[in-house]
Amino acid sequence: MIISMKKGATKEQIEHVKTLIESFGYRVHESVGAERTLLGAIGDERGKERLTCLEAQPGVERVIRILSPYKLASRETKESPTVVDIGFGVKVGGPRIAVIAGPCAVESREQIMEVAHAIKESGAHALRGGAFKPRTSPYAFQGLKNDGLLLLSMARDEFKLPVVTEVMDPAHIEVVLENADCLQIGARNIQNFQLLREVGRTRKPVLLKRGMSTTIEELLMSAEYVLSGGNHDVILCERGIRTFETATRNTLDLSAVPVLKEKTHLPVIVDPSHGTGHARYVEAMAYAAVAAGADGIMIEVHPRPEEALSDGPQSLRPEEFRRIMEGVRNVARAVGRDV
Amino acid sequence: MIISMKKGATKEQIEHVKTLIESFGYRVHESVGAERTLLGAIGDERGKERLTCLEAQPGVERVIRILSPYKLASRETKESPTVVDIGFGVKVGGPRIAVIAGPCAVESREQIMEVAHAIKESGAHALRGGAFKPRTSPYAFQGLKNDGLLLLSMARDEFKLPVVTEVMDPAHIEVVLENADCLQIGARNIQNFQLLREVGRTRKPVLLKRGMSTTIEELLMSAEYVLSGGNHDVILCERGIRTFETATRNTLDLSAVPVLKEKTHLPVIVDPSHGTGHARYVEAMAYAAVAAGADGIMIEVHPRPEEALSDGPQSLRPEEFRRIMEGVRNVARAVGRDV
Amino acid sequence: MIISMKKGATKEQIEHVKTLIESFGYRVHESVGAERTLLGAIGDERGKERLTCLEAQPGVERVIRILSPYKLASRETKESPTVVDIGFGVKVGGPRIAVIAGPCAVESREQIMEVAHAIKESGAHALRGGAFKPRTSPYAFQGLKNDGLLLLSMARDEFKLPVVTEVMDPAHIEVVLENADCLQIGARNIQNFQLLREVGRTRKPVLLKRGMSTTIEELLMSAEYVLSGGNHDVILCERGIRTFETATRNTLDLSAVPVLKEKTHLPVIVDPSHGTGHARYVEAMAYAAVAAGADGIMIEVHPRPEEALSDGPQSLRPEEFRRIMEGVRNVARAVGRDV
Amino acid sequence: MIISMKKGATKEQIEHVKTLIESFGYRVHESVGAERTLLGAIGDERGKERLTCLEAQPGVERVIRILSPYKLASRETKESPTVVDIGFGVKVGGPRIAVIAGPCAVESREQIMEVAHAIKESGAHALRGGAFKPRTSPYAFQGLKNDGLLLLSMARDEFKLPVVTEVMDPAHIEVVLENADCLQIGARNIQNFQLLREVGRTRKPVLLKRGMSTTIEELLMSAEYVLSGGNHDVILCERGIRTFETATRNTLDLSAVPVLKEKTHLPVIVDPSHGTGHARYVEAMAYAAVAAGADGIMIEVHPRPEEALSDGPQSLRPEEFRRIMEGVRNVARAVGRDV
What we know:
The structure is a homotetramer.
Chain A lengths: L1 E4 L5 H13 L3 E6 L4 E6 L17 E5 L19 E2 L5 E2 L5 E5 L6 H14 L3 E3 L17 H14 L3 E4 L6 H7 L2 E4 L7 H9 L4 E4 L6 H12 L6 E5 L17 H8 L4 E3 L1 H5 L5 H10 L4 E5 L17 H17 L5
Parallel strand pairs in A: 7-8, 7-14, 8-9, 9-10, 10-11, 11-12, 12-13, 13-14
Antiparallel strand pairs in A: 1-3, 1-4, 2-3, 5-6
C-alpha cells in the first residue's frame, strides 16, 4: 500500500501516519516528491486492507493499493494452470474445451432425460440443471428442489455425465453433494461469503459464476474464500455483467477470459446463454468464448424453449445445440485445442 | 404482457402463439398495426413472467411487460404509506426523519458503548452495528459474531436505542432476533432469496439494502419475497449503485427516493456512508437525502475512524455526527418534516 | 506517476525503465518493497500522461498516477471559489443559488415569451432554451437555429434575463455569442475538444454539462481545455450519468457536487430535468441538489409539456415551477444560502 | 407506440389522449385490459418520437415504443448485407475479414512508413493512423494535423493501402477527404450530429465508432444520420463500452456483433486495441471478434510502443501483429471466412 499525503500535510501529520502504519505491523518507506509525500507500507499484503482506514486520518489524501489482495488464486503463487476433474474423467482447464449443457431448471423426468440424451449425443461432457432456482419473483417457479436433484442423479447414472447444479443455502450443501458432481455458486450468491466458506470445506469442485456487478478482482477474492477453506478445485465462470446496454440481458465480458488467464491459475469458462439472454446470439458468443481462450462453455438446452418454466428465451433446442457443437469444435481446433 | 410478432410473421405462427397464450391461462387481445401484429395477454399478472418464454417461439419478436411484477409492495395495492415501528417507539415512514447511526462493525464493549452514548446525545433514534460482517477478503475482520450481538444488546438496554444489525445466513436468524430489533439484509444478499423467505417468516422489521447492481424494480421484488411471507414491516434503503465513476465508492442514486415513493407504500431510507465511501461527502449527501424525501438516514460513526477494523474511510467522528444532526434538522424542517 | 515493476522484473529491465523515465525528462525515485520495485517519476505533472506508455515495456506491471492531471481547474491552484457573472448581474458560485429555467427547445415567439414571463415572475434568474438541438434521431425536430437565437434574444431584452443556450459546432459560436450570454456545451459534446478549444478563446461564460459517461476527472479535464484557452468563466453542470437503472432517464449523480466542490474552485450546478427525465421527480431532486451544495439548478419549463417538440416528459408547467421555487428557497435557507 | 394509461385514468383523460394522438397525425387503436387501457398509435414510425411527450399528460403512465426508430439502417428496409469498398479494392462486409492496422497517431515519416511496411507484409488490408487526435488532456500530444494527413497519404501511395483516419470537426472534412479513403468518426463524436450530417453529404466511406456509453440503438441512429444524407457506405465499429470493470480500459461488448448483424445490413468491425486498452489482451479479443462474426478488425501497431506519443499500452509491436494475423486467419477459416 502507498499512502499519499495531501499537498499541505504537516510534518506532524506525516509522522503520525508513519506511527500508525508501524502500529499495524508494517515498515514504512518514505518518498518525498515535488508535490506530495508518499509513504509505502511494507509487509504481509493480506492484512493490508485495514490500512485503508488511514484515509480518515488528517493529512492523508488517498491510500493506493499496489499488490493484488488475493494470494491462493494468484498466478504468482502457483504458475501452472489448475485442471479440475468434475467426474467421469471430465477435465476443465486442460487442452480440451469442456462443454456443460442442459436446461435452466429440471422440470420433469422426461425433460431432463430428453435433454441429457440429446447433449450426450452431440458430444457435451457434463449436464447442468437447476433444482434450487434463484428467481427474482417469489411467484415464479422455484425449482423441484430435492426431487430435481434426484432426477439429475438419475440422468447422470444413465448417461454417464457429471452433474453441475446450483446450491443456494448452506443448509442444502449436503443433499446437493450426494446428488451432484460440481457445486455451482450462482451470480447472485458470489458474495454470499457464508456459503463460500461452507463449500470451501467440501472436497467437491466448485463453479463460481461472476456476479452481475462483480469486478474481476472481487471474483478472485470470492475464489480465495473457497481456496482458503482447503478446496482447490475452483472453476470461474464469466456470465455477463450489468451495463447500460439493454439489447442483451447482460453484457458478456469476454475480455475477462484473457485477464483471468493472466492473473490466476484457475480454469475459466463462459456462459453465453445467460450472458446474452437470447438463444439467437448464443452461437456467436460460444465461438467467441472459445476463440478468446476459455476452458469451457456452459449452454442452456431445452426440448421446447417456448414452454420452459424459466429462461426459455435463452435456451437452445437440441438440434441447434448439435449444430453449435460442430462449430465449437472447428474454432477450438483453430486455436490449438479440441472439444 | 404484449407479444410483438415479427414483421413477416405468418398467420400460422400468430395462431400458434395465441394458442400458447391461452394454454398458459390468459385471454388474448389481438391488435393489427401497420407493421406489426401485437397480442395482449390478459389475466393475473403475477404468473405472467412465464410468458417471456414465448420469445423462443418462431415469429415472435419481443415480449413486452406492461404492469409491474410486484403486487404487495405496490402503491396500487395499498395507497397509504406504511410506517414501521422498529422498537422503543421509533417509527420509520412517519413525519419524523429516523436517524440510525453507529459503527460499521462492533469491535469492543468500549467502542460500541462510546458510540451509542455519543449518537444518543446527538439525537439519533437507533443504533446500527455489524456483528456478522460480509467482507470481500477472507483475511479481513469478519465481525465478533455472537459476542458482537451481545454487545449490541447491552448498548440497546443501556441507551434505550433499538438495534439494527445484519443477518447473512438463515442459520443466524434466531440468535439475531434475540438480540436485535430490526434485521438488516445487506446489499450483497438482496437477491439471496432463501434468506429473504426466512426473514419473511419472522415478525421483526426488515431493512433491505439495495444491491450494487439491483434495479429499483428488483429491489421491490425482493421486498415482495418478505411481504409474501406475511411480514409487512419492510424498510427499503438506497446505499449507492455501482457505476463507472470511481471518485466515490458507489454512486448514491438519490432519485431512487422519489421513484420508490411513487411506486411503493414502504418507507425509504438512505445510507450516505456506503453511498459515498468517504466521510467528507457524507454531510452533503445526508442533507440531500432528506431534501429528496427520504424517511430516514443511516450513518456510520466511529470514535477513531483511522483505527476502525472496517470502513474507516467513510465513518464520521462523534463530533462530526453531532454537527450534521443539526443540519439534518434544518433541512428536514425546510421540507415540512422534523427529526 | 509510479511505475510498479513486475515481481520477477530483472535488474536490466528496471534499469531500462529508469533510463526511459529520465529520457522523458523526469527524475527517478526507486523504492524496493518486499515483492515489488516501485519507480517514482518526479517532475511536471502535466506531461506525465506520456509515461503511461511504459506499460508496454517488458517488466512493467502497471503505471499508477498519483496527482490529478488538471491544473487550472484544481483547488490546489486556486483556493477561492470562482464566481461567474452570466449577465444582468446574475452570479453563479456566490451565496445565492442561481436558477436557470426555460424550455428544452425554443419553438415559437409565443412559447418562449410565455415561459420567460412565467419564470421571471417565479423568481428565476436566467433563461435557458435550445436553438440548435442535438437529437438522437435525424427525423426529430432539430431546433429553430438562427431564428431560435433571435427569439431568445428578444425574450432576454424584454424580461432582462441572461440567456443560456447550447452551441454544437465551432461554426456557430459567432452567432450564438451575438445572441446569448452563456454558451452551453451539451453532454454529447463534452469531449468535443475542438469545440472546447474554440469556446476557450471567447470571453463569454461557458456552461459545461457532464456527459453521460464522463468521469468527474474527465469533466475537469474538459474544463481545463476551456481554462487553458484563457477563458476563466466556466460553470460545471451535473445532469445525470448512464447506468443500468432505467426507472429514470439518467442517474443523477448528486455526490458529484461535494466531490467537485472539493476538487475545483469552479461553480457547480445541477440539472434535475435531464437527470431524471420525468417531471414528477424534478421537485425532489431540485431540493436535493440545493441541499447537496449546488450553486444553481437548471430546470425545464414548458407551457404545455404534452405538446412539446422535445423533452416533454421532463418539463414542468409554469405553475409547478412556481411552487418548486418556493421549496428551493426554503431548502437554500436551511443550508445557509438563498435564492 | 403504445400509450399505457394509469390504473385509475378517467374516461375524459383517455379521450383527451386519443384526441392528442390523432392531432399528431396517427390513428388510435384502443385495448381495454384487466387493469390498464392501452392506446396504440398507428402510422409513420419516424415521427413517433414526439409521442413521448404524452407522458406529461395526466392519466398517462408510460409511452412504450414497439418499432425501432431507425429505417435506412434496418435489415427490414434492406435485407442483403451492405459491402463497403474502402479503396484499392478492399471490401468490408464480404466473405473476407478486413484487417485495418496502424499506429494510434501518426508521429513522423519514419514511424508511419515503418508501420505501413510491416502491416502490409503481414497481410493487413488498410492503414489506420490519427492526424487529428482527441485527447482528454489539453497538454497531451494533439496530432500532427495536416502534416499527419500528408504522411498518411504518402504511406498510402507507397504501400497501396487505403487510409482510415479520424475527422473531428466539420471544418476539417475537406482536407481529410483529399488525403484519406475512409472517414472515421471517433467514439467521442458519435453523437456530434452536426459532424454526422456533414460526413453524410460526402461520398466517401464512413467508419462510425460506438461511443463509450452509446447503446446499440443509438449507434444505429447515428448511422441513420449519415445514411439519410445520402451516403450509404457506413461501417460500424464496436470498441468497448464504459462499465464498472477497471481491469480493462473499456469492456469490449462482443455480443454487439451478432445483435448488429441481426438488426442492420451494415458491416460491423471490432477494435480490440481500444476495447481492452492493453496489448496483452488484444490477441484473444481479435480472435474472439472474428469468431463472433465481425467483418473486420482494427488493431493498433507501433514500432516502439514504450515511446508512443499516445496509446502506447495498447499498441502491438510489428512482430506481435504478424503472429496474430496468422491466428486470425485460422479462426476466420474455422467460421467459414478468410482474411
